């Protein structure tokens, strides 16, 4: 059988699936390939934080739109919006908090500083010694584990072809577009979107494009179910801690601590040299966590480019090939930027501008 | 990097303790780590102090001999110690241990994994009723504390273990309502030539069956327990004839009993091997998913050895020999002289014991018909109270890997870390999605190997030691 798809999307994470759903809405014949399970790469193993307090100033409009998307996805992705506090324990951290959150507030995030009394009233189990805190009522989280399940159901309902555990082993250009070799039948397509997170670089490399992508190996940990200890999303001025207690009582702890490994060598591995201080900081902020048993620690690959803005647009020099990925806070903006990417591929004007993968990464983004 | 010892051995059962003894004989410094206070593992578990005067049996005698040998050796034995994380740092293994409520770290140049087996109980309606025990779990109660499962017990399951459990319950003064096994008499007869590789073990098994038969205990061959009733306690056990693939056929019969020992074979415990970097493959004849391991314990990873039931369910006799071989291989790697005679002798001993072990494992290996026993309301994942219907519905939406079912439903995310449900979930995916046996792998391993109190992981923290990292870009 030699069907040619209008577009093949390599990478069934949030961004690839959100793009596929937008394209399928207008009747594009779309196929999504994933080397593993849908939504179980970075999309499914990140800490799920939806916090405007840790978003970049220039990405604030995208993050605000992303929050609206996650809120609409609702209970199916475990969305909650309890608000979020960012804590400072020293004068240096308080100054950092003041400077950074003020800029984010100016960019449109409803962030304000709260008194320690107000904080204590809301979260009585937090440790003493907090000297400053900011609050954003729009902050919350989704359960990233449910990402794959959510998109699997949406893709089925939209009748989109999905091949899981089906890596693209070779991509070549043909007269009519592209041919992708896989362990199953090859895929022929007119257009191609690479949305494979930490694996974008080798895939773009097959089409002769060298993208300056680095990969971070973020670590997260979770405890067994606990009685309610706190309700808001808790962050730390340095960014070294995020935590939330989900409705099932488990406490999810992250903070960008780095594990080991590369996408090329398979999955990443945690190293206790970074997990232990991450957990210690969590216990420092919320002493009652000490009695919780940690049940799992894991890593996820977060790709980035030197300016830490997304790659979203045309793959430089390859007609009909596109790339989407690489951003700090990709979980938050993923569903939204995926939709924009769909519009871009359809040749439509996008609601907010995209991020040209052919830009000079050493220049300040305009 | 210098290491605290040459060789760390995880697990002090027949395989691990013998590996440690052999390696220490070769002049290596060896640390032997185990969750239990004393060596012996599950099969040669030490009696608790309250029952020291209880009569000896061949397991307790073998265990006592092993404990004496460990005591007389130069091994450093750490009992009551849980290994919860394994990392490769440069050219050494770093282990994180939980002792009491404290985390300790240690390093070793080589690592021998002898993590043994866990048991598989295929979920059936009512299997979570109090009074239902795993077959292997029941043996732990006898050996450790002389506790019987109840006053009137049905013993059900495949392979030799059911007969051992029934025979032990009788020896300890308990009453057996019946033994129910899905194996047929002719399957046992066909297994005898292979089992004759270890006539001593075969003879021992024969005495269990002979004891039951001469005492008039009903043995229902080619039958399986298909439901348990009772609310706060087992009231009755329901069973049916089964076909050769163990699908229930014919009418349901009922036995009154207050307890049930139920088991469907043993599964190699491979999570430590996975954390250490080994890939798993499905080997039905070895009891399921295992790492690739040579008879002398050598694996694809340098200075990493696996031996005993954790490398494949071949039983204690094979584990003893493979443990010695692995200890020999590890010590040889550090310059110990290896007697070629001893090595060849051990290899042929292992081949014989393995032949017996494979025959026993083949009898116990769960067959596809078992998947027809659970009803939609049967609990599959105990930690999260997920039923067969919950998991089957998820599979039917396209979640056809254990990772996908785990992420979508939390099956395997509870405190047991999937030890209870993952094999059942794999089999259910294969059955529901019409995939071949052994095609659905266990989920990605996540440390810690056991739940660890956060305070024990986080100790010795000084806030001022936090790295002053470059803040994320604004």
Q: Tell me the number of helical segments of chain B per DSSP (H or I, 4 or more residues long).
A: 13
**What is the helical fraction of chain B, as a range of percent?**
25-40%
CATH class category label of the largest domain in chain B:
Alpha Beta
CATH architecture of the largest domain in chain A: 2-Layer Sandwich
Shape descriptor of chain B reads globular
Query: What's the overall average pLDDT of chain A, rounded?
Result: 96
Could you give a quick summary of the protein structure above?
The complex is a heterodimer of chains A (366) and B (474). Chain A contains 9 helices and 18 strands.
Set out the fold topology.
The complex is a heterodimer of chains A (366) and B (474).
Chain A: E1 4-10, H1 14-25, E2 30-33, H2 42-45, E3 49-50, H3 60-73, E4 84-88, H4 91-106, E5 112-114, H5 116-122, E6 132-136, E7 140-141, H6 147-157, E8 161-163, E9 170-174, E10 177-181, E11 187-194, H7 200-205, E12 214-223, E13 233-236, E14 242-245, E15 251-254, H8 272-285, E16 293-304, E17 311-314, E18 321-325, H9 330-345
Parallel strand pairs in A: 1-2, 1-11, 2-8, 4-13, 11-18
Antiparallel strand pairs in A: 3-7, 4-6, 5-6, 9-10, 10-11, 12-15, 12-16, 13-14, 14-15, 17-18
Helix pairs in contact in A: 1-6, 1-9, 3-9
Chain B: E1 5-10, H1 14-25, E2 30-33, H2 58-72, E3 76-78, E4 81-89, E5 92-99, E6 102-113, E7 117-119, E8 132-134, H3 135-145, E9 152-157, H4 161-171, E10 175-181, H5 185-195, H6 199-214, E11 219-221, E12 223-229, E13 236-242, E14 248-256, E15 259-263, E16 266-268, H7 271-275, E17 280-283, E18 288-291, E19 304-306, H8 315-333, H9 340-364, E20 379-381, E21 386-387, H10 388-396, H11 402-409, H12 422-432, E22 452-453, H13 454-457
Parallel strand pairs in B: 1-2, 1-6, 2-3, 6-19, 8-15, 9-10, 9-15, 10-11
Antiparallel strand pairs in B: 4-5, 5-6, 7-16, 12-13, 13-14, 17-18, 20-21
Helix pairs in contact in B: 1-2, 1-8, 3-4, 4-6, 5-9, 8-9, 10-12
């Amino acid at each position: 059988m030699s069907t040619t798809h209008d577009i093949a999307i390599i990478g069934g994470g949030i961004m690839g699936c959100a793009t596929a759903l937008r394209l399928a809405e207008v009747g594009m014949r779309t196929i999504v390939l994933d080397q593993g399970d849908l939504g179980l790469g970075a999309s499914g193993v990140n800490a799920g934080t939806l916090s405007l307090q840790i978003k970049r100033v220039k990405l604030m409009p995208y993050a605000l739109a992303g929050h609206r998307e996650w809120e609409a996805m609702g209970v199916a992705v475990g969305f909650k919006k309890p608000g979020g506090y960012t804590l400072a324990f020293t004068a240096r951290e308080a100054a950092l908090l003041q400077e950074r959150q003020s800029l984010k507030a100016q960019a449109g995030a409803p962030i304000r500083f709260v008194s320690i009394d107000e904080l204590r009233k809301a979260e009585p189990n937090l440790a003493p010694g907090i000297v400053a805190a900011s609050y954003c009522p729009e902050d919350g989280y989704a359960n990233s584990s449910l990402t794959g399940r959510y998109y699997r159901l949406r893709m089925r309902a939209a009748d989109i072809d999905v091949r899981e555990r089906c890596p693209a082993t070779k991509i070549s250009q043909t007269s009519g577009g592209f041919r992708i070799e896989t362990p199953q039948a090859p895929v022929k397509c007119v257009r191609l979107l690479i949305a494979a997170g930490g694996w974008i670089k080798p895939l773009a490399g097959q089409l002769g494009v060298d993208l300056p992508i680095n990969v971070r190996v973020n670590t997260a940990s979770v405890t067994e179910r606990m009685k309610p200890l706190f309700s808001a999303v808790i962050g730390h001025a340095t960014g070294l801690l995020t935590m939330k207690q989900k409705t099932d009582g488990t406490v999810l702890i992250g903070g960008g601590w780095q594990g080991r490994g590369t996408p090329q060598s398979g999955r990443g591995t945690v190293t206790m040299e970074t997990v232990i201080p991450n957990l210690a900081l969590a216990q420092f902020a919320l002493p009652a966590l000490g009695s919780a048993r940690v049940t799992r620690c894991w890593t996820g690959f977060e790709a980035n480019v030197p300016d830490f803005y997304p790659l979203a647009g045309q793959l430089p020099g390859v007609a009909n090939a596109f790339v989407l990925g690489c951003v700090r806070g990709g979980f938050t903006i993923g569903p939204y930027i995926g939709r924009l990417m769909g519009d871009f591929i359809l040749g439509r004007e996008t609601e907010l501008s995209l991020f040209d993968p052919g830009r000079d990464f050493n220049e300040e983004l305009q | 990097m210098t290491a605290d010892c040459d060789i760390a051995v995880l697990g002090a059962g027949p395989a691990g303790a013998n590996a440690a003894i052999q390696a220490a004989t070769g002049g290596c410094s060896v640390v032997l780590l185990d969750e239990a206070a004393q060596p012996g593992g599950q099969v040669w578990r030490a009696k608790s102090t309250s029952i020291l005067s209880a009569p000896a049996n061949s397991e307790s005698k073998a265990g006592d001999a092993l404990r004496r040998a460990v005591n007389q050796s130069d091994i450093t034995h750490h009992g009551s110690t849980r290994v919860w994380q394994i990392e490769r740092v440069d050219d050494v293994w770093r282990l994180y241990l939980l002792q009491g409520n404290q985390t300790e770290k240690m390093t070793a140049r080589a690592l021998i994994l002898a993590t043994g087996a866990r048991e598989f109980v295929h979920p059936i309606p009512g299997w979570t009723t109090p009074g239902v025990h795993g077959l292997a779990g029941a043996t732990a109660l006898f050996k450790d504390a002389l506790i019987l499962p109840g006053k009137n017990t049905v013993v059900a399951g495949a392979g030799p273990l059911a007969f051992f459990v029934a025979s032990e319950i009788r020896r300890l003064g308990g009453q057996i309502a019946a033994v129910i096994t899905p194996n047929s008499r002719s399957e046992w007869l066909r297994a005898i030539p292979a089992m004759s590789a270890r006539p001593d073990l075969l003879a021992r098994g024969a005495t269990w069956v002979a004891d039951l038969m001469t005492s008039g205990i009903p043995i229902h061959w080619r039958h399986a327990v298909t439901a348990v009733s009772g609310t706060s306690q087992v009231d009755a056990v329901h069973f049916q004839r089964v076909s050769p693939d163990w699908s229930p056929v014919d009418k349901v019969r009922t036995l009154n009993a207050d307890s049930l020992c139920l088991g469907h074979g043993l599964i190699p415990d491979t999570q430590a091997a996975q954390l250490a970097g080994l890939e798993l493959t499905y080997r039905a004849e070895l009891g399921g998913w295992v790492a690739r391991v040579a008879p002398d314990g050598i694996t694809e990873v340098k200075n990493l050895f696996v031996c005993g039931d954790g490398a494949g369910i071949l039983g204690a006799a094979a584990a003893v020999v493979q443990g010695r071989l692995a200890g020999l291989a590890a010590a040889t790697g550090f310059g110990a002289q290896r007697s070629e005679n001893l090595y060849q002798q051990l290899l042929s001993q292992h081949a014989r014991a393995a032949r017996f072990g494979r025959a026993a494992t083949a009898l116990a290996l769960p067959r596809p018909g078992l998947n027809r026993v659970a009803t939609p309301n049967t609990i599959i994942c105990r930690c999260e109270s997920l039923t067969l219907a919950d998991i089957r519905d998820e599979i039917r939406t396209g979640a056809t890997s254990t990772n996908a079912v785990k992420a979508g439903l939390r099956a395997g995310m509870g405190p047991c870390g999937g030890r209870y449900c993952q094999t059942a979930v794999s089999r259910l995916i294969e059955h529901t999605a019409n995939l071949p046996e052994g095609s659905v792998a266990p989920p990605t391993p996540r440390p810690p190997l056991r739940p660890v109190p956060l305070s024990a992981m986080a100790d010795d923290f000084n806030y001022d030691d936090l790295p002053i990292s470059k803040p994320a870009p604004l």
